[in-house]
Structures are given as structure tokens and as C-alpha cells.
Amino acid sequence: MINGIGKWAIAACVSLVASLAVAQERPWEQFDYPAINNFDMPALEIFELDNGMRFYLVEDRELPLIDVNVMVRTGGVLVPDDKVGLQSLTGTVMRSGGSREYPGDALNELLEDRAAVMETSIGFSSGSARFNVLSDDFSDLLPVFVDLLRNPVFPDARVELAKTQQRSSIARRNDDQGAVAGREFQRLIYGQDSPYSRRIEYATLDNISRQDMLAFHQQAFVGRNMMVGVTGDFDMDEMKAWLSEAFSGIPAGEALTLEFPGVDYEFTPGIYFVDKSDVNQSYVLLGHIGGMRDNPDYAALQVMNRVLSGGFSSRLMQVVRSEMGLAYSVFGSYGSGIHFPGTFTAGVMTQSESTAEAIQAIIGQIERLQDEAITDEELAQTKDQFLNTLVFQYTSIASVLRERMSNDYAGLPPDTFERLVEEVSAVTVDDVQRVAREYLRPDALRILVVGNDAELGDQLEVFGDVNSIDISIPEN
Q1: Helix, strand or coil for residue 127?
Q2: Cβ-contact 214, 151 below 8 angstroms
Q3: Which of 3, 76, 83, 142 has the most CB atoms lying inside 10 A of its own CB?
């Protein structure tokens, strides 16, 4: 039996807990936040040498460091089908093999002694090189960096080592469930023979020679294909003199034209399956072709994507994961490519027995975006989150400068970021529903499941005839 004092104590505790719960619902509203400092980008200076090399310079005296980033107009899009992987091997061995004056091991030792970094790589649509060094050592090591860019030797031993490492990657490419799903989904969207879904095989690797790497490098690393960004602790006039002297000896060469073929895509649905018997869950990707970055609806599409799949407050996370308990992870994106169309993709990791239910739940949320307008509160929250996260993409002066260079490389206007902020701020509830109806096709999704056939049973048949995908690795 509870006496009067006990009843009073219980009531007081209940009242206190209730008060704390109310206070903790929005604790941030109790805080006084200082005003956010404005980010003032230091002055940018751009100049060009007679050989066509373009330079972007921004002083940043915060740390005694200088950071150099080079963008090169080249990429895997230039590589023929029988030599897929040439660009990545070239980028790897450029650095690992070093130059005649600074061979790989000697270069490693020199950089280690000076706490400096030099890196090179070549991707599908561009190449890059980076040089980071203490400002006091910059003038000594700049000629070393230029020599590496201009005169790599691609020694046979380093070429063979890079090939051996790549062969190991090919042998292990089916180990990771997510990697298998991502690779095969690309092939479902772009086509088996598309340059956008090609993959390195043992046969293409065997076709690549040291001479191929030399030729690929010589074609790309010339003045008319190179842009150089420099940030750090330097004097502007002195830096311009150093760069002019160091890079003026690079030949102008011929400007490369990167031609990105169109994507022949038809909105046709299908269900595809990869049997991976060593897993106890399904990795699902579903979607179709996406769009291009220059689409006037780009901002509205990105807001729509955030509503659907942008983090813990998104509909997929709230419904599929939190309310229905169907997912370990659920995600998505509406991709808008610069050079070729991206993909609209939604994905989920779920238990084998709940695979079909999870797929149907995702499709239901896509249809809901088309059928029901989002709320004003949901739009405001989504736009706030989007705009706030944009800030963290540019955490340093160097990252802002790289973005400017990337925009120039892609042919986008210099104020692309500022325009995006304005366009996102202007997106309305009607815009979100309009683009969902115009660009999403829940009736024509290509669905890929990588999972355990023995555990899945026949549940995928509800989506149509199941097409099995063979992921065995060709020996030659």
C-alpha cells in the first residue's frame, strides 16, 4: 500500500519526467547560437602560359603548406575495348615507377624525408596529379614534380607489379556483395557493351604493354590538356614566376577531345538475380536511367531525391527501415551526370525472407511521391538539410578552388554553386511532385537482387520472370 508521501513522490517524479521529456524534444531551441562567420574566399588569380597550361592561384597563409592539384583532359573513355584498364594502370605506374632522374624508390625516400606527397591517377573522364609540401621546400621539389609529370619511365618491373595487383583484384571482384550489385546494375542500365559499364578482364590486362602506357601518357600530359590549381602559403608574384619557369618547358601538344557516346535506353522493367550462396541477406538495387547535370530541373530533382532517400529523415529510412523494420540499410539517389546520364537508383540490404516485401515497400514510396504532394514542413526541412550539407562539401580554400577547376573542366559556369543554392531555395511543393511524376518510372524499374537462392525461394517471381546473371570470371 502506498502512503500519502509515496503518492506525492510518484506524482512529482512523473511530473519531472514529463517536463524533462518536453524540454528534451527540442533541446536545441534552448541554446543561444553565435552568428556564423562569413566565408570570404581570398582573391583568385588565373593566368595561362604560351603552351596552353592554365593556372589558378589562391593564397592561404593559415598553414606553412602549399598544395598543387593538376587536372588532365584524358580518361578511360579514350581507351579501346580490348585494352580496358589502360588509363588506371598508366596513372598508377606513373607514380610508382618515377622518372629517370627520380626512380620510384628514390622518389619515395626523397618525399618521405621532406614530409611531402606526390600522387597521380587517371579515371574514366579525367586524370589528376597532386603535390603537397611544406612551403619552405616547394621551390626545391617543384622540379621533381614537373619531371614526374613530364618524364615517367614506366619500368617493366613496376608495370608487371601493377598488373599482378590488378589480377588479384579481378580474382576477388565477386567477394563483396555490394560491389557485385553495383557493377552488375551499371551493366543493366547502360548495357553489357557500353563504355560506361566496361570492366577489366584478364584478357584486356594482357593486351596492355609498357609502350601503350607511354603513348597514353604522352598524348595526355601536354600543356593544352592540363590545368593547375595552387593554394597555400606563398607570395603571388613569386609563385607565378616559379610556375612559369617550371612548366613552360612542357610541350603544348594537341588538345584532346573526349567524346562520350549517348546511352540507348528504353524504359523496360525486369527482375534480375545473382546467386551468392555465402550470404544470408539480399542486396537489392532498383531503378532506371537518370539525367544530366545541365537539366533545368536539377535542383528540384535533388530536393525530391532528399525527400525520398536523403538520410535518416527520408521516407525510405523512416518507412522501410524504422516503421516496417525491413532494412539494415536503405538508400537512393537520382544521378545527374556531366558527361553522360546518371542513374536513378534505390537500394536496400534486407534479410532474405523479406526481400520481396522490401522491394515493394520502396516502390510504394516512389509511387507515393507521385500521388501525394509533400507537406510544406517536409519541404522546408529537406531544403534546410540539403543547403546545410552543401556547406561541408567545401571545408577548405583548396576544396573551393578544386570545385572551380572542375566546373571549368566540365564547361559549367564559375558560379554553379551559388546558382544551385538559389535554385534549391526556390523549389516548391508542386515542383517536387512534378519532377517525381515526370522523371520517375516505378512501372519500368530494373530490379537486381544479389542474394542466396536457397533462402529466397520463389518470392521474386511476383515481379516477373527472373533473369539469372552469370558473374563467373573469364579466364581469358
Answers
A1: strand
A2: no
A3: 76
